[in-house]
Design goal:
heterodimer; A: 563 residues; alpha/beta; Rossmann fold; four-stranded antiparallel beta sheet; 38% helix; B: 339 residues; mainly alpha
């Protein structure tokens, strides 16, 4: 038995038209190597990797070209062998239309690999295994591209109850996980075996939406084989009801285990961790084959003649990939991801990256512009559809009015931007846009506030320091003049005859006092680590001291008395 | 070009409102069957007035005319006014009521989605305070002749043969005015116009609304919370008091099937704009309306209490919502929402 019997439910969700059949008819094909690969250095959450190559350099397939910047980062690699023609700013596959540093490689067509060494993670320390995966560029392939090595950490308890593999793939049109599970289930399970050992996880639950019977069947066979090896029933396939967003990590964890991981908390603290099936596959490739992450399965679907899944090298321009699928003439946009959460691309020459699970070709006919926005009638459809149990219309109300504090009170940041609310809204309000706006405004204000706080702290510190210095100066001056007067009085008393004027006497006394002070100071600061020294060292110290004294003497006239 | 999601469920405000109108049809049909065509005249009159007022206000506010005129919300308000006003009310009573609802209660508060009070109930409350006698003259069941009804609405009013107090009004007057000595059984039993449950004809109209309400539930336009809480609360209170003193307090059968109870439960209390939106809030809101309705019906000066009860609870709705925020995902057991 590998089937999971007991399932839980999450609230809300919607059932959009799935449109998945079009791209599952044909097996995965390998997309041809393009004439130019544009590989962005920053392809994961975390710090942007530092480039390791320069223009003109020859690189091998799988050679690291960007080094992880610290631990919260992930390396990038050359997708094939060839020559680096540039390391420059190029347009990124992001709605913003911003550019970022990319390594542009002209492939030589030889596909010459680096020496590939499997990694013996069983005899390596967990930290070494994580470093290996970081340097192999393995990140979450479900779309969030969170560095996987950071998640392969069992957390406080040092072990996990459940490792969840996410094969739900709830977004319409996308089938890259579906075909991967159908065609390469053993490799996915091999990756799961590695992850289970690294996390000391009890059982592995593989969640797949029940609209993918072929993938479920394939994964069950692979899970059975793994259970035989393990000698226990630890790998279980859960056929979860098809309802968007069942593939949201938190929703899937809830459905499979009944555990609700609150926003902002680590799922490992609840004894569970969730990975995409594609990530499991990538971990298997990295650890057991020594191949860093240089390609992934990408669904090309939408307004095309033949939708299909391709294994695509990172850096392949999307237009080259789309061209393989005969896009229809009325196509007017490319969307990375699915229709519910995807992002419109700023151009068709942006590269396929680790986050690209799907390139959706759009047209006005396929995705018509929404009818004009009507006022909210508080019908509550959005609240019924929200998988995070939020009150979307209240958040909309406050976001629209720019009362961001109230929007946050209504848990704006628990919103996963799945789009269910906007999908069901009878007033056709682009609700998610309002939340994105509110979130970015709040972030911007926090950054501003932080900057202002730092500036204010600095200013206040400066005021404080100036005040303190002023007081110290005043105190010193007061002490000095007081001491001077005493000394002067004493000198006057000592000198029987008033040979000199009192002013001159006071001056002399001042000088004497200063000399006395300097002498005691010198004695006080005499270094103590010069107690037991060899004669050579002693000689050296003496020489240095002499030089210092010389310098001090030279500097003396320039020093103000207070310094 | 828009952002994700790129495709939407085919739903619109218009389709919601049209289905509400559709759900009212069974009740209206029964109404016309027992009480004549006057109610249809009132519906047409109210609809025309509402659309004209809506158009004028949209134009004055510089809003797109066709988009909002076609949303059907003004028609829902108009029909509810026509169904809660006496069917033989003079035409100007209906017209003024509709104008108050559309111009003041709806547009002066910001139009569709912005009104804190249920517009139809504002109209009812305003007119019953201003014209209590006209708002209390209801046609008797069985007198379905159209000509005298038409005359009552548009012409000279020869009302004596036509009108009577509603069962609710008659009962309240008989039982709870200071000089009252009657009992429930006595009042309900000795008048031919009282039916078996909620008054002759009225119980069937209520049944019609109930059917329409089930349709709204099936279409997921309303949730079960409000009708269930409203009807259950009314049932429990009236049942309790009827057990305590059956001579002085009418039972649940009467209260649920008379006056505006059924119409209110499914069509008025459930107005999303002015009501509560959280599941627990909906229960509290509707139960509050039921409680206030019974109090006003039993001890108040007006023939039915739903309008005032709704308006009072409308005021409380935002507060109730604030304190009944459901826990968000992962926060169950912890304090959710704001306080």
């Amino acid at each position: 038995m590998t089937a999971l019997q007991r399932l839980f439910k999450f609230n809300g969700g919607v059932k959009p038209a799935y449109n998945k059949e079009a791209s599952t008819g044909l097996p995965i094909a390998v997309a041809p190597t393009p004439t130019l690969l544009v590989i962005p250095l920053h392809q994961s959450i975390g710090g942007p990797p530092r480039p390791l190559v320069k223009a003109g350099e020859r690189v091998l397939k799988g050679q690291r070209i960007g080094d992880a910047d610290g631990n919260v980062s992930s390396a990038v690699h050359a997708s094939t062998s060839g020559t680096v023609v540039a390391v420059e700013m190029r347009l990124m596959p992001h709605t913003s239309g911003l550019s970022a540093m990319c390594v542009v490689i002209e492939p030589d067509g030889r596909n010459e690999w680096i020496p590939r060494q499997p990694f013996d993670f069983r005899s390596a320390s967990p930290a070494a295994s994580r470093d290996f995966l970081r340097d192999a560029g393995v990140v979450g392939l479900g779309g969030a591209v969170f560095p996987s090595h950071l998640k392969l950490n069992a957390g406080k308890q040092g072990k996990l109850d459940v490792l969840v593999l996410n094969g739900a793939e709830c977004e319409p049109f996308i089938t890259c996980d579906d075909v991967l599970m159908r065609e390469r289930p053993e490799e996915i399970i091999k990756g799961a075996v590695i992850m289970r050992e690294m996390l000391s996880a009890g059982e592995v639950l593989i969640g797949i939406e029940d609209n993918k019977p072929a993938a479920i069947a394939a994964m069950e066979i692979a899970a059975r084989a793994a259970n035989r090896v393990a000698g226990a029933n630890v790998y279980k396939v859960g056929s979860v009801p098809t309802r968007y967003p069942a593939g949201g990590a938190k929703q899937l964890i809830r459905v499979l285990t009944g555990i609700e991981v609150p926003h902002g908390e680590r799922s490992t603290d609840y004894g569970v961790q969730c990975f995409n099936v594609g990530t499991a596959y990538a971990i298997h490739e990295a650890i057991e084959l020594g191949q860093p992450l240089i390609s992934r399965i990408v669904t090309v679907a939408g307004n095309v003649g033949q939708a299909r899944n391709y294994e695509v090298l990172f850096g392949t321009p999307m237009k080259d990939l789309v061209a393989l699928c005969a896009p229809l003439p009325d196509s007017d946009r490319l969307i990375m991801g699915g229709p519910m959460m995807g992002f419109r691309m700023p151009g068709d020459d942006v590269p396929v990256v680790k986050a690209t699970n799907c390139v959706l070709v759009g047209s006005t006919a396929l995705f018509p512009p929404p009818p004009p926005e009507m006022p909210c009638i508080r019908c509550g459809e959005c609240a019924k559809a929200c998988p995070a149990d939020l009150q979307p219309f209240e958040m909309y109300w406050f976001s629209r009015a720019k009362i961001f504090g109230k929007a946050q009170e209504y848990n704006l940041f628990d919103c996963i931007e799945c789009g269910c609310c906007a999908y069901v809204c009878p007033s056709r309000i682009p609700l998610v846009d309002y939340y994105r706006f509110a979130k970015s405004e709040i972030w911007a204000r926090e950054v501003e506030k932080e900057a202002a706080d730092v500036a204010r702290d600095r200013y206040e510190f400066r005021l404080l320091r100036e005040e303190r210095e002023k007081q110290e100066k005043a105190a010193k001056l007061a002490a000095k003049t007081a001491a001077g007067r005493e000394k002067a009085a004493a000198a006057l008393a000592e000198a029987a005859k008033p040979a000199a004027t009192p002013e001159e006497d006071a001056k002399k006394a001042l000088i004497a006092a200063a000399l006395e002070r300097a002498r005691t100071e010198k004695a006080r600061v005499h270094p103590e680590n010069t107690a037991d020294l060899t004669p050579e060292q002693q000689a050296e110290v003496t020489a240095i001291e002499a030089r210092r004294a010389e310098i001090r003497e030279m500097a003396k006239p320039h020093l103000r008395p207070d310094d | 070009m828009n952002n994700s999601p790129y495709f939407l469920q085919p739903a619109s405000v218009q389709s919601v409102m049209l289905r509400v109108l559709l759900a009212l049809l069974p009740g209206i049909a029964v109404y016309a069957w027992f009480f004549g065509g006057a109610v249809l005249v009132q519906i047409v009159l109210a609809s025309i007035t509402a659309l004209a007022a809506e158009a004028a206000m949209l134009k004055a506010r510089g809003k797109p005319l066709m988009m909002f005129l076609g949303d059907g919300s003004a028609l829902v308000t108009a029909w509810l006014i026509a169904l809660t006003f006496p069917p033989i009310a003079p035409w100007w009573l209906t017209v003024i009521g509709v104008l108050a609802a559309i111009v003041i209660a709806k547009h002066l508060y910001g139009g569709l989605g912005q009104n804190p009070f249920n517009p139809a109930m504002v109209a009812f409350a305003l007119m019953i305070v201003a014209y209590p006698s006209l708002m209390s003259q209801w046609s008797a069941a069985g007198f379905t002749d159209f000509a005298p009804q038409w005359n009552a609405i548009f012409g000279t009013r020869q009302l004596d043969a036509l009108t009577m107090a509603t069962p609710l009004d008659a009962l309240r007057t008989a039982l709870h005015t200071p000089e009252a000595r009657a009992t429930v059984a006595g009042v309900l039993g000795n008048d031919a116009s009282f039916g078996n449950i909620g008054g002759k004809g009225w119980e069937w109209v209520a049944a019609g609304y109930f059917i329409g309400g089930l349709y709204l539930l099936q279409q997921r336009i309303i949730t079960w919370h409000m009708p269930a809480a409203f009807l259950a609360t009314l049932f429990v209170i009236t049942g309790g008091f009827a057990l305590y003193d059956p001579g002085r307090f009418a039972g649940p059968g009467f209260h649920l099937f008379t006056g505006g109870a059924m119409l209110g439960a499914f069509f008025i209390v459930t107005d999303p704009v002015s009501g509560c939106t959280t599941p627990r809030g909906k229960l509290i809101f509707a139960a509050g309306i039921a409680l206030l309705t019974w109090i006003i019906r039993t001890f108040g000066a007006y023939p039915d209490g739903i309008a005032f009860a709704v308006l009072l609870m409308n005021i409380a709705a935002p507060l109730i919502d604030m304190y009944t925020q459901p826990p968000v995902f992962g926060h169950k057991g912890k304090k959710g929402g704001s306080a």
